[in-house]
Each structure stands twice: as C-alpha cells, then as structure tokens.
Amino acid sequence: MKKTKSTLAYSVKMVSTAFLITSLLAACSPGGKENTAESESPNSPETKKQISIMVPNFAAETPADNNAVLQKLEELTDTDVEFQWVPSSSYDDKFNITLASGKLPSLMVVLGKSPSFINAARSGAFWELGPYLKDYKNLSGANEIILNNASIDGKTYGIYRARALGRNGVTIRKDWLDNLKLKAPTTIEEFYNVMKAFTEDDPDGNGKKDTYGLIASQFNGPWDIMQVWFGAPNGWGEENGKLIPAHQTPQYLEALKFFRKLYSEGLINKDFAVMDPTKMSDLMVNGNGGVMVDVADNAQRIESKILEKDPNHTDAVDVLQAMVGPEGHRDLPTSGYAGMIAISKSAVKTEEELKQVLTFLDRLNDEELQMLMSYGLEGTHYEKKDDYIVPTTDKLKMRDLNGTNQILMFIPETLGLTVEQTEIRKKVAEVQKANESIVIPNPGEPLISDVYAQKGPQLDNIINDARTKFIVGQIDEKGLQDAFALWEKNGGKEYVEEMNKLYTELQK
Q1: Which residues form the signal peptide (predicted)?
Q2: Cβ–Cβ < 8 Å for 295, 431
Q3: Element of type H or E holding 108
Q4: Which residues fall within 8 angstroms of residue 483, CB to CB, at 6 or more apart?
C-alpha cells in the first residue's frame, strides 16, 4: 500500500535490496533455475492493480495509511489503493488546483457539477462511462433519472453517489416543545409561532432569555429548502413552456420577507451570515437553538451527541417534514446523488485499465464492501447483535473510518446491516419516504449552460449575497431588485436565454 513519497522511496529501496538477494540465491540454487514464485504471485506489485483516489474528509483526522480497514479493502479488491485525503473545507480549492496541474489521480470524488469539472469533462480529462455501465453487475442497476441528473450534455462522466431524493427535513428540540406544551408545527404559520416561543418563552427552563428558534449559518441550503415551502421553484420554474429562475418569482420574495421577519424579531442566531456551517449542530446540542432545516438524518446525529452528554436525555429530538405553505405541501429534493466519482484519463490511460477501475468501483457496491467502508471490521469496529450492529465507542479505532464512506455509491441500493434503528432513525426513514410524494423537481437540472460554466459562481454570489443582505436588513426591496438587475446585466439574461434554448431542445 503506497501512501506517501517517503514510504514509497523506502519501499523501492527495500524491494531493490530484496531483488538483489533473491537473484544471488537463485544463481546459487541447483540447476541455476530462477526463483519465479514472487513474480507469479497474483498479489505481487507487478500484477496487482494500483488505484489512487482523491477523497474529501469531513473529520478532523485522517485514517492511518496501514489501518486494518484499508488493508482489507486492498485484499478484497486485489488492488493497491492510495488515498489522498483532503479536508472538506478546502476540497474545492484542492480539486481545482489538481485539475489545473493536469496530474490527476485515478479516481476523484467530484462534489458537484462545478464549472471547472464541466470544462474538464468536456475537454476530455475524464472517461465517458455511459456505454460501459451495462457490463457490470451493480453499476448496470444505476437509476436512469439520477444518471440524467448527474450527466453533462447527456453524458456520464462519473458514477453518482446515491442519496435519498426526499432527504430534507426539519430537526426540532422535542423536549422544548414538551416543556412549552406545544405541538409539532405542520404549517408555516405554526412554524413561526414555535420559533417565537423558542425565543421568548424560556423553553429550556433555566430562567434566562438565551435561546432562539432557527439555527442558520453561511450554508445556503436552509433558505433554499424553506423558500420552496412558499411555492418558489426548485432552481428553475416553468411558465408557458419557458424556464424562469427562482428569484424572479413572487413566491421567492414572499419567502425572503418571512426570513427577514424571523431575523428582525431575533428568532434566528444573529451571526448566521459569518458562522461556520459545521457549528450548526453544536448550537442545537448545547441548547442555544431549537430548529435546524437541513437533511433529516441530522436528527439522529444530534440525538447521539445529546445522549453522549447526558444518557438520560432521551426524547430530546424529533424530525418533521416540510411545512405546508400557501401552495400546499412541497419539499426541496436532492438530486438523488451527492457528487460522483470520476475516472481521469491522465492516470487511467487505456480502455483495459478503465475496465479494471470500473471493476473496482462495481465491487465497492457489494454488501461486503459497503459494510467494510461504512462500519469497518466486525470484532474491531463493531459487533453484531441480532439483526443490527453495535459500533465501538473507541475513538482511535473509529478514526480508521474517517472519510472511507465517501467512495461508496450504493448502487443499485444500500445493503447490509446497520446500527440499531432507534425511534429517531425510524422517524427519519419515514420522513424521507413520505417526502418522495411532495418533492419538487428542477426542470433545468440536466441542462449544462456554457454561460453558467463561465459565470456561475459570480451569478450565484450576486443572488445569495442579496438574499442575505435583505434578510439582515442591509438592503430593502428596491436594493433586492437592483441586485436582480445586476444579475441580468452580468450574464443572467444570457443564462436564461441559453437555458431556455437547451430546454426546448431537450423537449424535442
């Protein structure tokens, strides 16, 4: 398992020394025959496949190079795997730097269809995989809708990492609801009333006014989710056969007025615009805020952290579906995937090598590999109990799994045992399943705009910055409209025109 330049240099030196000794012994052996046992071994460096993978790591520490999980991965796949762990906070920058260098690893986790990835794919930096998937047991079961969502110009440049379409939800402090004798909200009006009570009515009972309702951060996801409750489109809306960007709809403005009201009344943490998104859950765990609008499975992670602090603090968390708004029950879906795994042509040069890499990826979707990369080794990282597993609480051992699940695709489905299904985990599954009937698709998602590839970050920043400034009261409605006009002037008008042209072609 080659991991770093230093270990590689040491390995080369040792292999060279071993080769010299072996050659001398062979020369002295009866009959002068060569000792070919090493060269014929299926696991020898000469025959073992070698794959390098660039992976984001959302934990503070990376797995040790020689840990048992990665060794088992190599054994089961007959592959020498080199992981390049990159902190999630700097992954986009590292990804772009690596693309610019032209020296790409075999596999790269692609977090989204960024302009840099689109340009690289179009210029031939990555293999187009669509024609090959049918030849592999697991990959052939990929969902066609999700493949289409993840495609570029209708072509598959990466194997998507499957996620629940109806993944988003509302995580709420159930104990606060109970303390205030409130019911879980189901409508936007009830949601507002709960946020107000969580801020003003001492939900934690400590006699201090030190809580607020909604937890927000620099992350734009919660606003995107909630504006759909008001009837705003998911990215793009359709009217009379034409695509309209979400911010140009009246429902979008109504949502922003609601957010502005929450902020002006102190129902949101005041520092959200500069707060690190990774700190959001801490605010709920520590009893600062009562609600997070994000992926529903945050509820189970927050509950686990609360129970770590106080094992007796059960029933502290609940998870809800989207709030019912003026246009009914609507929820923002995911795209069905969280990034993809792309295969570079700079490291994987031939079709034969490509098929070897695809075999490796296909194997990762087997139950055995899903279990390994999600939960580690039985007896070390978890124990089996009935029909579920019990993970170790040893943090040093769990370090072996930091980031390993980032290379899993779960195609065609998630397999194997999981942790015991607590009540909150069961509720999360119920919410995500129920969401499938209320998610609002994005008609523009499969479309790849050249204008957006060139100006996407600038255009997105104009809208997101204006939204934040409007929420916190730095600009009024006129200032918001001025920002929308600036968006059009800086490429937004051409972007809309191009998207509609692509949409018309797609309909044909």
Answers
A1: 1-26
A2: no
A3: strand 107-110
A4: 462, 463, 465, 466, 469, 475
For the sheet containing 212-214, what is the strand order? 212-214, 289-295, 168-173, 317-320
Report angle CA 253, 259, 265 to the nearest 5 degrees: 135
Residue 28 in this model has a pLDDT that exceeds 80: no
Q: Which CATH architecture has domain 168-332+418-440?
A: 3-Layer(aba) Sandwich (3.40)
Q: Give the whole-angstrom CA distance, residue 491 versus residue 489.
A: 6
Q: Six-digit token pair at 145? A: 């809708």
State residue 97's pLDDT score. 97
> Across-strand partners of 80?
50
Helix 298-309 to helix 423-435 angle (10° resolution) is: 160
CATH architecture for segment(s) 51-161+338-407: 3-Layer(aba) Sandwich (3.40)
Q: Is 275 left (phi over 0), alpha (psi -120 to 50) or beta?
A: beta
Q: The tokens 């972007």 sit on which residue?
A: 495
How many CB atoms sit inside 10 A of residue 12's CB? 11
The per-residue pLDDT for range 143-164, each reduced to its tens digit, is 887 888 898 877 899 999 998 8
Tokens of 335: 């795209």
Beta bridge partners of residue 384, listed in sequence order = 389
Provide the H-helix boundaries in 376-492.
395-398, 423-435, 450-471, 477-487
